[in-house]
Amino acid sequence: MPYNPNIHHRRSIRLKGYDYSQEGLYFITICCDNRASLFGKIENHEMILNDAGKIANECWLEIPQHFLNVILHEHIIMPNHIHGIIEIGTKNVSLSQPIIDNVEETKNVSPLFKSPSRTIGSIVRGYKIGVTKWLRNNTDIQKVWQRDYYEHIIRDEKAYFNISNYIINNPAAWNDDSLKKK
Domain boundaries in the chain? Predict the structure, then answer.
């Protein structure tokens, strides 16, 4: 069916007019396609990563190597989703970080995509590309992620504390998790 703007429109879940490249703390949730448990399992309230989960964790930890103005806070790889807090700081990346313009060059540098954009969206996109590339090359899985991701701008210390605790305690609450496939 050809594109019809009257029926094929996407509504953005992003805060209208907000600059997602500005410094601040962002709570991110990225879900697997169809909530498939691709990254491991929960045993005794603890997340046990499989090989794909270990790669998902490694790619997450590599984000600051590709976005030098980023600091990672708490995160958790769950069986079918990832939660994490990303801080965008003020470090000047335009002079300190080389940008790779040729996508072919990225194949030899890193599984994470290099982007000149410094938004939360570009960070999540790069992360998703890195994990997807590994899964496609090492498993029979082709569709890894559901479209888009959830983000929440953390505006104060109380919100940060609550979200941090939620992330840390997520494996223990797995049986009641709304993202668990029923």
Answer: 24-168
- Tokens in use for 156? 């104060």
What architecture (CATH level 2) is domain 24-168?
2-Layer Sandwich (3.30)
State both tokens at 4: 């019809």
Q: Which of the 8 DSSP states describes residue 145?
A: B
Please write down the long-range contacts of 114-123, taking CB distance under 8 Å and 24 or more positions apart.
114/66, 117/21, 118/21, 118/67, 118/69, 118/88, 118/93, 119/20, 119/21, 120/20, 120/21, 120/26, 120/28, 120/86, 120/88, 120/151, 121/20, 122/67, 123/63, 123/67, 123/70, 123/86
| 13-57 per-position pLDDT tens digit | 545 665 566 789 999 999 999 999 999 999 999 999 999 999 999
pLDDT digits (tens, 9 = 90+) for 125-134: 999 999 999 9
